[in-house]
């Protein structure tokens, strides 16, 4: 994190007061209904086996890929972006958090939020995002990925019909694992035929982080109360790529940072390079092999007076992975140098607080 020293302590106190109590009271939702069997979800018997870690049970013996869809859904493309956002809105509503969009700013009003943070919609989002990643993998290799759109439509049809949001958390985790296994097997059959299931699973995880760039990335303000006072945490996009980093992407084909990657990630970068260049999307923290600061926000801690006017209590900057941990030393130091230059292009006179766990770093000369 990049913080002004005089604001860090104040922010830490406010953050812990606002969210610490809610987190320590968290417990999984337990209102499990008697859910009907269908071609998407596994049976209660299979759920139990899955939750016990039975690796021999795929959980898909009853799944019928030829299940019919309502109306004209078979003919339509599945809108992953829209459905995922609807689920995220529903998840926050279940927590007592309301959304309000103002241009590219999302205001989340958590003034009436309750302590139970569990929402089944979060797991539904993960399922859809995994299916979206599988479809993208097919597209990268010019294969037909419509079967994953169909799986997504069937899932959402069953989800709405049977109200699976009230399933308990352990059951969702079991189902998510089983859905993932089926997707891996399908990818091996139709596109990644020479890869092991473990390798396909790793590629699927990587693709999940890239396809998230298909979603809208908002500036976010979350409002909350402490006692009878209202506060807010504000996250704004702030780190545009420098001209050198933009060149790193546009001229990537011969760049060392790009050529050292395996061909699969190169295909993903080729598909999403324009997203990194548009300044409207965050680079996910998990994408550690590519140029640019990750998950970069300009943050403010706000209070509101009795007339609703903002009072800035603290401001600071945040980014993941300023340093590069790429094994190639020359590439790693060049990437870290350009990341640091990216920060200095937008803010001067910063104190840098780097959080590392048992990692010995040799700081380059430019730090």
Name the assembly state. single chain
Helical segment count:
11
Strand order of the largest sheet: 2-3-4-5-6-7-1-8
In whole angstroms, how far apart are the ends?
14 Å
The level of helicity is 40-55%
Describe the structure.
- This protein has 367 residues and is α+β, with helices and mostly antiparallel strands.
- The protein has 11 helices and 8 strands.
- It has helices at residues 5-24, 44-51, 80-94, 121-140, 146-162, 169-190, 197-211, 243-250, 256-259, 263-277, 329-344, and strands at residues 2-3, 98-102, 105-109, 219-226, 229-237, 294-304, 310-320, 351-352.
- Strands 2-3-4-5-6-7-1-8 form an 8-stranded mixed beta sheet, covered by helices on one side.
- β6 (294-304) and β7 form a beta hairpin.
- α4 runs parallel beside α6 (169-190).
- It starts with a strand and ends in a 15-residue tail after the last strand.
Feature tags:
14% strand; 11 helices; alpha+beta; eight-stranded mixed β-sheet; disordered N terminus; 367 residues; flat; single chain
Spell out the blueprint of helices and strands.
Layout: E1 2-3, H1 5-24, H2 44-51, H3 80-94, E2 98-102, E3 105-109, H4 121-140, H5 146-162, H6 169-190, H7 197-211, E4 219-226, E5 229-237, H8 243-250, H9 256-259, H10 263-277, E6 294-304, E7 310-320, H11 329-344, E8 351-352
Parallel strand pairs: 3-4
Antiparallel strand pairs: 1-7, 1-8, 2-3, 4-5, 5-6, 6-7
